[in-house]
Here is the input.
Amino acid sequence: MRTIKLFIGSILFLTILLITTSCTETSAQKNSLTKEEVSDTIVKEIPILNENGSTIETRFNTPQGFTRVDSEDGSFGSYLQNLPLKPNGTPALHFDGTSKLNTSAYCAVVDLPFNGNSNYQCADAVMRLRAEYLFSQKRYNEIEFLYVSGKKSNYINYLGGKTPTKENLWSYMCGVFCYANTYSLNKQLTSKSADDLQIGDVFVIGGFPGHAVIVVDKCVNEKGEVKFMLAQSYMPAQDIQILVGDNGESPWYDLNFGEYLYSAEYTFSKNDLKTF
Here is the structure.
């Protein structure tokens, strides 16, 4: 009888040991699978800022889940996305060489010298970018801007038969800076819906002084949600800057901003969007 009890006890012990071992292995396998599943679902978010990037497109990555709009070669959009930038951390300077005080408003400075021109403010920077683009495409006769007086100033007419050069383009633009502003730019541009925002469009409030910022980049996600980037000059005359976006960190703004766009240094209505 004692032998039978010992045999039964041994069987029970082995059974419990097997069950325990089996459960332990199952748990380990489960934990291993869980780690693999977690590993497969982890997506490393790419930082927005690439300090070594030398253009808008290479300096700033898109937010997670968004893809940059691929502008057609030779388009105004492509020109703006490829604007040269000064090294990361370079301060924006006024026409007199002093630094812009509000460093929290911008996250990059466009590398286009303005030669200390004290008239080079917000609308002037927008017109300068448009003129530089048209010049790069040899569309010289399309370089034309409206003065506050109502007069149209055309680059080819200004040349009077001279060959277009970067030097006389700048001389022409210096005259534009003197006689055109947000008031005349607002009149020259065509209104459009913010839902159709494109690179190269301008948020502008015409006035004295008013303000203008230009859309220099755009990205979209699979849901069709849109983010965009803005650039400006300001008062007193200063370098063109890439503005800090609506989250206070990256340069991206959400197109779903409601009735008002709160840019880094100015507020616009959704009805203030215009295009060339």
About this structure: Residues 1-42 have pLDDT under 50 and may be disordered.
